Amino acid sequence: MGQKNNYFTLNNAKKFLTHNTLSISLPPIPLVTVAMFAMFLWLVIILYYAYLPPSLGMSFKLSNDGESIIVKHVVPDGPAAGRLKPGDKPVFIQNVTSGEKIKLLPADINMEPDSVSTYAAYNAFFQRQAVLYTFLQLGTLRFILADGTAHTIKPLKHRPITELPWLFWYQLLCGVLTFVAGVSVWASKRNDKVVFYYWLTGGGLLLAASSAAVYSTRELALDAGIFKSLSLINQLGSYLFCGPFIAILWNYPKPVGKPYLGELMVLAFLVFWIMNYFQISDNLDLGMRLPMIGGLAVLVSLAIWQWFTSPDDPLSRAVVKWFLMAWMVSAAVYIGLVTLPLIFGETSIIDQSLAWFILLLVYLGVTAGILKYQLFNIDRWILNFWLWILGGLLVLVIDALLVYVFGLEKLLGLSMALAVAGWLYFPVRQWFWQRFADRVGQTDYRVLYEQASAKLLAADNIDDMDGSWKQQLQKVFKPLKVEEIGFGVSQVTIMEQGLKLAVPALAGDHSLLLTAADGGHHLFNASDSRFANSLWQLYLKAYKFEQAVEQGAMQERKRIARDLHDNVGAKLLSLVYRSEGRKTQNLARESLQQLREVIHGLETTGEAIGDLTYLWFDEASTRCDESGIVLHWQENLSDAQYMLNSRQVLNLKAVFSELLSNVIRHARAQSLEIIIAIEASEDKKILSIIFTDNGQGFDKKMATGRGIHNIKQRISELDGSIHSDAFTEGGTKTSLSIPLKQRPV
Fold first, then answer.
1. Is the pTM of this model over 0.70?
2. What b/e readout covers 38-66, taking b as 16+ CB neighbours within 10 angstroms?
3. CA nearest neighbour of 531 among 470, 456, 452
């Protein structure tokens, strides 16, 4: 019974984690309104905590040797104005009334209380803050400087909001931007688990940045209880950024395992925070830093897993690239602005408190990945990013060599570094771009355009152009699939974040849809779209020109057909009725029938092969019955609607009738087998016609006859071939092969 209850409890927990965490059912606008109101209340609390402490009207910083405190800034018209100035070194602070004084220590202005290694030092910091804050509340204070002079200052009861430094508002803005972005996306997709995690990371950054804004911009001291609470909130925000971020990569773009494990990861980091709150271990690294470092390792591992499990899924890979590029850009900016100057013995270009915008960059990268923003351009951006990084590193390395190895002055060294880097970097970059750009999805469109133009010039008619257009798209982009869609597009359009490319067809109201470029390894990008559009414009102009030529030719053919019908046809018809001899009448009727077929061919644009074989069967069965020949008919048409143009129809009709006449008149056969089939050959189709009779065999004298000569000439016009074999036991086999260039209707 106990096992059953435990199983029931575990199942309930899974269901709760999987479903109930997203049970908010407010519509988007009310949800955003509630979230914005909650954020507003929190910001009011933050502003109150920043306003609450007494104000000295000045700020402090460490001396260059880090052994003492110096005045950094004095607020005009503030309590310290006219008494202290930037650069003064206060050593003691004394209560004027009681005479009690305490020594100011460098640790008193430490911006991050959790930068120490143990909880004992962490707690001692807040005890020290409590003492300093009590002094600030006692009234008039005397600052004793290193040179022995003393200056009396009466602090204001509270710090004016207008005197808060820009760094305070900057950190607040970073937190607000991430929170608003998270809420906006979550409100529109609030049933999406990944977006929920994304919102949690935004909420975490708001808590971390806003709490740090208060204590990192304090003048000297805060109320110890408030300070410690803000520090814990800052740590909670950091955990809420890391834990949900892991949950995002656990579920997106592909799920790694059971979905509810994502919630467990978030809960795990909340447990770490609780352990940190109760200071279970004396080591602050174990309670704070190691979980964050471990979380970063898990993030990298999940990103690698997502990458290697989607080799043929360019959409998922592009999402992972957004995440990775966000981390790379952020790390590069931090190392370049904070770490590298310290390595070379210089001060950081920016204070570490300014590094909040680096987390903002990470968050914006995650935002772009979740919203699948411009996924088709991510490869080009990553390449440009690395080229930018390499250029900057080259300048730094050359500058360091010139200054520290060759002893040049810093300004001269920097100038020479920029010059040498420019001379070396840009040629190397151009060489790299030409040699290796194709490895990141770049294509030499100039060569492809020349090849496409040559292929276009080789097309015989508009139907050849249509087939060539599809072949060029297949050759250039190597998509996994090319299909026709039932609606037209006016220009080349990237669809589904670069996974598909919609391309106009040359004719009709349909379009071509290309899926997954380069065999599924890349997304279609803006360069692909521009090239495809240029290629389409080229083909479209040629297509319209050829269409106009064919329309003009068609009009001329119709005029000739009318003249033949009105003049030659009328005379042949008259000859049929006026001729007295039967032989002459039959010849006139046959000539009139052939003339009608010629006129029909001139007046039509083509005929389906299925309709043509129907006429052939009717002709063959009628004439074989009249001649006492047994007909064996066989068709194997993979596409009976395959369209032949008028010239093909006219020539094939004439060839078929002539071959049939040869069998009837000369073969003396008792049976005739006719096989008509459409066979596939590489990228085209072949029409195969085979006549096999059991007659007297092939007469070589007939090979020089006019009938055979006409057959060969007509087959040659169709780019086909004809071959005849005579069997030793009697009979003849004649095979025709005609390439079909027209597309199916």
1. no
2. ebeebbeebbebbeebbbbbbbbeeeeee
3. 452
